[in-house]
Amino acid sequence: MSLVNGLPAHVLLVHFVVVLVPLTALALVVCAVWPAAARRMGLVLPVLALVTLVSVPLTTGAGEWLEKHVGSSALVRQHAELGDGLLPWALGLFVLAAAVWWTTRRSAAQQDGARSGSVIRIAATVLSLAVAAGAVVDVYRIGDSGAKAAWQDGYSKTATGSADGDG
Question: Transmembrane residues, as ranges (predicted)?
């Protein structure tokens, strides 16, 4: 995918990633910490994580196309390198979302309070917190580098006038 309505697809797709990764991370942490929320969300949690996972390679693929159509700079290369590192985080979100969904579903069916189930839930909660934090920080770093690559020297720090008569 290269262009959508005349715009580089990456510029549009990146908004899905910027919204979906933190949203999935938040939902994952809430469901891992609060089993009642996981039961209420049900299959929505792993489906959300799957949509997030699919959106990452679509966005990076479109970004690779865009990288070939803009001037190369250190900022663009840094952004591309950081962007390539998001897929493992998205995969981690998906795997943990599926695990939290599965363990919540399993524990609701058993109602035993088995010791092994609580150990798995604790491990899933700790891993969910770590992966969610890592994914959100990575999205921030990627977005920051992308904004710098796109806007570095692309605007004036002082107002140059305005089309609506403010300046």
Answer: 12-36, 43-66, 86-104, 116-137
Q: What is the pLDDT of residue 150?
A: 86
Query: 53-72, pLDDT tens digit by residue?
Result: 999 999 999 999 998 998 88
Q: Which alpha helices (H) appear in the chain, and where do they start and end?
A: 9-33, 35-41, 44-67, 74-84, 86-110, 115-151
Here the CATH number for the domain that contains residue 106 is 1.20.120
For 122, the domain range is 7-151
Q: What is the pTM of this model?
A: 0.86
Is residue 165 one of the residues assigned to a domain?
A: no
In a domain, 2, yes or no: no
